[in-house]
Amino acid sequence: MLSPIIRRRRRRLGILTTADRLLLAFMVVGASAGLVALAFSPAGSGAIIIRGEGGFEETVAAGGSGTFVVPGPVGETVVVVEDGVAHVESSDCRHQICVNMGRIRAPGELIACVPNGVTVVIEGRSEDGPDAVTR
Cβ distance 31 to 24 under 8 Å? Predict the structure, then answer.
């Protein structure tokens, strides 16, 4: 018969119960399935998605072109897409940061006009390069 002190030490030392083992097994299987799904997921189509307030959403296919006027609370934001490259041509917002962000062309890049609630994003993920760049 084990003394209460030895039983407590055994419990602290990590002797797993059946429930602990089942939970650990589910976690390992779930993490493995997630990694496999991530490894085999497609990089994305490269479509350009323009979103605005009030449910506005336009999708431009990879390599597509067009000019889109997106309404917002401050005014209008004009987004131009030419051959799969997007930029904000003009906006009624005060600081014009979205206009000065330049052109985006790679999957995962984004332009945001926060005062007007407009985002322009290229769908997908980049195969190489940094995840983010700050200035």
Answer: no
What pTM was estimated for this model as a whole?
0.61
CA 133 – CA 135 distance, rounded (Å): 7
CA nearest to 84, candidates 105, 107, 102: 105
CA–chain centroid gap for 31, Å, is 20
- Distance, in Å, from the CA atom of 65 to the CA atom of 105, rounded to the nearest integer, reads 13
Q: Is 120 helix (H, G, I), strand (E, B) or coil?
A: strand
Q: Are 86 and 122 in contact (CB under 8 A)?
A: yes
pLDDT of residue 43: 47
Q: In what order do the strands lie in the sheet with 57-60?
A: 57-60, 48-51, 118-122, 110-113
User: What DSSP assignment string belongs to 11-47?
Assistant: HHTTPPPHHHHHHHHHHHHHHHHHHHHHHHS------
Among the listed residues 87, 86, 78, 80, the one whose alpha carbon sits nearest the alpha carbon of residue 46:
86
Mean pLDDT of successive 10-residue segments in the chain (135 residues)? Answer: 60 71 84 74 70 90 90 93 92 92 90 93 74 71
